[in-house]
Amino acid sequence: MHFKLSIPEPCHEDWSQMTPSGQGRFCSSCEKEVIDFTELSRKQIIAKVQRGEKICGRYRKDQLDIPYFIAQEKPAFKHLGIAAAFTSLLALCEPVQAQQSEPSLAYYQTDARVDEDKKESVQDSIAIRGNVTDELENPIHKARVTLAGTKITTLTDKDGNYCITIPKKPNTEKVVLHFEYLFYDLKKVQLDNTTKRIDVTLDQPIVVGEVAVEYDPKPAKN
Q: One Pfam family for this entry, by name (predicted)?
């Protein structure tokens, strides 16, 4: 069995203006404690949902609309060997799904590339370097960096570093780099003639509201 979380009606109250509490913050408007789920693990979220309480919380976008698996304690099988195999498989389901909740490699499988028809010589190009991190200063691996309006693009390495080569004389008046990663807000940075390095921090959308739990007794499809 698994379930998914969603927030049908997001709350528009300002999280920063709420009163700090034990598990998050207290909203004086709705007179409820808003639990901060953004730092909780999948196991901790499952435990809270299984208590059956209505939960008003603050969630990252990647925590919503994905399957959370509930392990079956005593599966009814006639043969002990089958039961053991099923238990092992069920124990593996959640970590596999956790990996699937990460950005798909197929989405980022293209390496840095330059449109062959518009490739500039080394003398007519400039290299822009930098680092991409999240709001906790963790490096983001495989974030995409693109010169707006072109096919010139590259990906960050495991340390969040990148290097992108762009024409010194682009076809557009404004030279803008796009930084993007799944579940994070797109960031646009305009360059000037002196720019040689750009370090950016990508922000992940946060949703606040009372969560709805949708149960499904069938295994989630891969």
A: CarbopepD_reg_2
Average pLDDT, the chain: 76
Q: What are phi and psi of 82, to 5 degrees?
A: -65, -40
Residue from 98, 64, 101 nearest 208 by CA: 64
Q: Can you tell me which residue has the tokens 């096919």?
A: 151
Task: Verify that 133 and 87 share a domain, yes or no.
Answer: no
CA distance 13 to 28: 10
* E strand segments, the chain: 2-6, 19-20, 24-27, 32-36, 56-60, 68-69, 125-133, 144-147, 153-155, 161-167, 176-180, 187-190, 200-201, 206-210, 212-216
Q: What is the domain-level CATH number for residue 154?
A: 2.60.40.1120
User: Domain span at residue 93?
Assistant: 2-102+206-216
Share of the chain above pLDDT 70, in %: 72
- Pairing state of beta strands 176-180 and 187-190? antiparallel
Q: Report how far residue 207's alpha carbon sits from residue 117's, in angstroms, rounded to the nearest whole number.
A: 43
Total structural domains within the chain: 2
Decide if 115 is inside a domain: yes
Please check whether residues 96 and 126 belong to one and the same domain: no
The SS3 of residue 219 is coil
Q: Is residue 221 part of a domain?
A: no
Question: Do 52 and 84 share a structural domain?
Answer: yes
- State both tokens at 118: 């518009």
